[in-house]
Structure formats: structure tokens, C-alpha cells
UniProtKB/TrEMBL annotation:
Binding site for ATP: 218-224
The protein's name: GMP synthase [glutamine-hydrolyzing]
SUPFAM superfamilies, alphabetized: Adenine nucleotide alpha hydrolases-like (SSF52402), Class I glutamine amidotransferase-like (SSF52317), GMP synthetase C-terminal dimerisation domain (SSF54810)
Keyword ATP-binding: yes
HAMAP family for the chain: GMP_synthase
GO molecular function: ATP binding; GMP synthase activity
Length: 507
């Protein structure tokens, strides 16, 4: 186990993902909320931070159980912190150091830099610099602009680096983390999808016993992997509910339901399309639509959960990025606990005990676990799809006819991406039905029909995104097919906005 203490850096989660890629388990905790079981952690990494050790809001970790007692790696702010408060000095950089740099000096015969040589590219992102090393420090590496780029403390297993090994642009970053964790800290590389499945199945059996568990399947990767894991652990005591809100992609409900049944899951498909459409009637405000869909889902799910006698647990596909406690820049830990409902007004199923088998793993690990479990790669590689579905891609109010039109357009676009081998190059794609009619000609007649927008983006987590440069020929073919085949649409446009400042969805 490796402990990562977070000081609010945008890269903290990346550190954790790199460590996990080495098949080493790690946890992120706020710098000022150390875990109770600190003795279980074999090594500690201090993250970077947007704060300065010279500022008014210095983030002070309590390192008394760590420093000199466990292998410690301090990154960026961490390195500056150790320097500034242990006999060294940190000053503002003359120039803000941001971006690629190369190691111009690497101390010979150091385990920490095993297989990393002078010239190696590293990623810098800091505005303070270490001008004097702390007491008992030995310089390990420099770049042209940053003399004190890496140091160790004599007599301790304490290492510090100014650059960011977790960022891909640090080409030997993973090697450096391996040198620290495997060579120096001697942490075992036993965290694999297989070992995760084995230990999670055992833990679920222990926790749930012979109780019944209910789980809402969405067709997405997380809920599917959570279901298959639970099914492996408790078999028929897992009751899955898959709700058709009438806003899914064309034929999605039937085909995904069949897939779930084929996987041996005990799943009930509930077609509540009409109920959702009725609740949405006349609503055009995006948040009102989201709320209506959320509330209707809760009602439908609650009705279904009541049909299962003696159910004790609600399973959810929550993943690690949703549970990491974030650190706010002014130093306070900001617990981001999502509370959708007021206590007291909770539907019955939300009073069940919660089980979240994926709460300690990242999205890429969910996919690897899914592959180990034998889930169809096509299902694991599906694009994300928003919970409110096509309702937030039909701008304005929703009618059955608009849903039908958009389903047809979307199917042509998505199937086209698959047929041309473009689907896996895109992170998310979909079509948007615009609330305007535009003029067209058909034969000698003028038409006033709908405009649709196509959107395809590249992203890693949806927080930022870039539009995808799809081939013109593909766009041309797709546009022709849509206009020829989908009655009611006479114009297709392609969205070339990035996020920020735009968002992925249009509502
Ligand atoms: P935006 O539009 O905010 O979308 O750039 C980022 C990601 O979130 C998805 N999204 C939603 N997912 N309920 C969801 O479950 C929603 O209301 C919702 N709105 C946006 C969006 O599809 C993208 O993947």
C-alpha cells in the first residue's frame, strides 16, 4: 500500500494512476487528514500544490509518523516544503518554469535514478524554486534552469523532485516511480485486475452474506462491471433493474438487455418510456428536464425495488474519482459528499445499505477488471452516455417524434463511426437536434425542416475535451445519409468547439 498525500495539485490523481499502472495499490488522502491505519502504508508520496510554501496559506502536513520512518517521495510543492522547513530555502523563480526540460546532470550510481540518464525529458510546472537544499541533502539531478531538480536526505529514505514524474511528458517518470517504490521502498507489485477480482469477490461475500442486493444497470461500463463482480460473488441474490426511460439510443434497450441476459445476470428490463415522456411534456429548461428524469427514475426504481422481498443492499457503480476527498486551495479539506435528497424524504430503496465494489478503482482499471471478468470488449469500449440521455440532446421540449428523429440520426452517425473504424478513436460522440427549422429545396419545393448537429470529442475524463478532426469524406457521407434517410431533417452541421469554453453537451 502506498499513501499519496494531496496538496491540491491538478496532477494528484495522475500520480495514483501511474502507481496503479505499476500494479501497486495506492490511496489518495488530503494532506491534513491522514488515514488511521498509517502503519499499513509502506511508502508515502507528497503531491504538488497550487499553493506556495512562502505564501500565507502554507499547507502543513503532519509528517511525524512518516519522515525518516518510511520511504518518502516529495514532488514539486512537497520537495519545496521539505526544503523550506528543514534548513533550505525557497524563492520565487526568475522565470515561471513550465513545460518540458531535460536533465543536464544526474548523480551516478543512485538507485533512485537507475536506468535514467542525462538528457532525460522531465515536466516542470512551478513558480517557486529551491535555492538552498535542506540539511543533510545530497543533490541528485539538475536541469539547465533548475539546479536543485532532485535531492535525497542522507540517512533517510527521503527523496524529493521538483519535476512531475506522473505527467506523460516526463518520459522516464514511470521508471522513476518504479525505482522509488519497487527498488527503494520494496513495495510488492501484486495489484492486478485478477487479484482485485479475487479479493473483491471474497470481500463482497463476507460483507453481503446471503442478503439480497438490488442494482440499477444503465448500459454503461461502471454499472455493468459492478454487476458482473457482484454476480460472481453472490449469484442469484443480485437483482438487476434496467430501466428504459425512452431516451436511450435506437434499439439500445432491447440489445443491451439481451446482452445482460446472455451474461447470466438476473436482470429485469422495465420499459417506462411513457411515464418519462409524460413527465417531460412541455418542459424545455435543461435543469427542469434533468430533474424530471431523475425524479421519475427514482420513482420507477423504487416501485421495482419494492417487488423484491427482503432486499437489504443497494449496489452502485461509484468509482474512485467520485469518492476522493478534494483539497481546496485555501487549505481546508472540502468534503464533496453528494447529497441529492433530504433525509426524511428518501425513497425506500435509498435507505438500503450501500455496496460499491468499484469505489477504490479508476475508470481505466474498471475496463481492465471488466476484461478479466470476460465482459464483451465492445461493451467495455462504449462511449459515455449521459443519464438523461437524448433529452439533453433535444434542445427545448421533448416529444416522441423528436426522440424518434434523433434516434435515427444518432444511429447513422454512430454506426458510421464503427463501420469506418473511427469509433474507438473518439471518446464520446452523438447528435443534437436543434430547435430551429432551416430552409431547403426538394425538387421544386421549398422545405422548412430540422437542423441536426454532430459532435465528436477526444477527452480523458470529460473535464476538458477537443473536437475530433473527422475525415471530410466521412462527414460528407454521414450528412448525405442522414438527409436522405431521416424524414424531417434537411441540414447537418458539425460542432468544432472545444471544452472549455464550450461543453460537450449542448444543454
Ligand atoms: P459537459 O456537457 O458538462 O459533459 O461537458 C461532460 C460529460 O458529462 C456528461 N453529462 C451528463 N451525464 N447526467 C449525466 O449522467 C447529466 O445530466 C449530464 N450532463 C452531461 C456528458 O455526456 C459528458 O460525458
Amino acid at each position: 500500500n502506498v499513501l499519496i498525500l494531496d496538496f491540491g495539485s491538478q496532477y494528484t490523481q495522475l500520480i495514483a494512476r501511474r502507481v496503479r499502472e505499476l500494479n501497486i495499490y495506492c490511496e489518495i488522502h488530503p494532506f491534513n487528514h491522514l488515514p488511521n491505519n498509517i502503519e499499513n502504508f509502506k511508502a508515502v508520496i507528497l503531491s504538488g500544490s497550487p499553493n506556495s510554501v512562502r505564501g500565507t496559506t502554507v499547507l502543513h502536513p503532519d509528517l511525524s509518523a512518516i519522515r525518516g520512518k518510511k520511504p518518502l517521495l516529495a514532488v514539486c510543492y512537497g520537495a519545496q516544503y521539505l526544503a523550506h522547513f528543514s534548513g533550505g530555502k525557497v524563492a520565487p523563480s526568475n522565470t515561471r518554469e513550465y513545460g518540458r526540460a531535460n536533465l543536464s546532470f544526474v548523480k551516478k550510481d543512485e538507485e533512485f535514478f537507475e536506468n535514467i540518464h542525462e538528457g532525460s525529458q522531465v515536466w516542470m510546472s512551478h513558480s517557486d524554486t529551491i535555492t538552498d537544499l535542506p540539511t543533510n541533502a545530497v543533490l541528485l539531478a539538475s536541469t539547465k534552469d533548475v539546479e536543485n531538480a532532485a535531492y535525497k536526505i542522507e540517512g533517510e529514505q527521503t527523496y524529493a523532485i521538483q519535476f512531475h514524474p506522473e505527467v506523460y511528458h516526463s518520459t522516464d517518470g514511470k521508471q522513476l516511480l518504479a525505482n522509488f517504490l519497487v527498488r527503494i521502498a520494496q513495495v510488492a507489485q501484486t495489484w492486478t485486475p485478477d487479484s482485485f477480482v479475487e479479493s473483491t469477490v471474497a470481500a463482497l461475500q463476507e460483507k453481503v452474506g446471503n442478503d439480497k442486493v438490488v442494482l440499477g444497470l444503465s448500459g454503461g461500463v461502471d454499472s455493468t462491471v459492478a454487476a458482473v463482480l457482484l454476480h460472481k460473488a453472490i449469484g442469484k441474490n443480485l437483482y438487476c433493474i434496467f430501466v428504459n426511460n425512452g431516451l436511450l439510443r435506437k434499439n439500445e434497450f432491447e440489445s443491451v438487455l439481451a446482452q445482460y441476459e446472455g451474461m447470466g445476470l438476473n436482470v429485469k428490463g422495465v420499459d417506462a418510456s411513457q411515464r418519462f415522456l409524460e413527465k417531460l411534456a412541455g418542459l424545455s429548461d435543461p435543469e427542469a428536464k434533468r430533474k424530471a428524469i431523475g425524479n421519475t427514475f427514482i420513482d420507477v426504481f423504487d416501485d421495482e425495488a419494492h417487488q423484491i422481498t427482503d432486499v437489504k443492499w443497494l449496489a452502485q457503480g461509484t468509482i474512485y474519482p467520485d469518492v476522493i476527498e478534494s483539497v481546496s486551495v485555501n487549505g481546508g479539506p472540502s468534503a464533496t459528499i453528494k447529497s441529492h435528497h433530504n433525509v426524511g424524504g428518501l425513497p425506500d430503496f435509498m435507505k438500503l445499505k450501500i455496496v460499491e465494489p468499484l469505489r477504490m478503482i479508476f475508470k481505466d482499471e474498471v475496463r481492465r477488471v471488466g476484461a478479466t471478468l470476460g465482459i464483451d470488449p465492445e461493451l467495455l469500449g462504449r462511449h459515455p452516455f449521459p443519464g438523461p440521455g437524448l433529452a439533453i440532446r433535444i434542445l427545448g421540449d421533448i416529444t416522441a417524434e423528436k426522440v424518434r428523429i434523433l434516434q435515427e440520426v444518432d444511429a447513422i452517425f454512430i454506426n458510421g463511426l464503427k463501420a469506418d473504424g473511427l469509433y474507438d478513436k473518439v471518446w464520446q460522440a452523438g447528435a443534437i437536434l436543434l430547435p430551429v427549422n432551416s430552409v431547403g429545396v426538394m425538387g421544386d419545393e421549398r422545405t422548412y425542416e430540422k437542423v441536426v448537429a454532430l459532435r465528436a470529442v477526444e477527452s480523458t475524463d470529460g473535464m476538458t475535451a477537443d473536437w475530433v478532426d473527422l475525415p471530410y469524406q466521412f462527414l460528407q457521407k454521414t450528412s448525405n445519409t442522414i438527409i436522405n434517410q431521416v424524414k424531417g431533417v434537411n441540414r447537418v452541421v458539425y460542432d468544432i468547439s472545444s471544452k472549455p469554453p464550450a461543453t460537450i453537451e449542448w444543454e
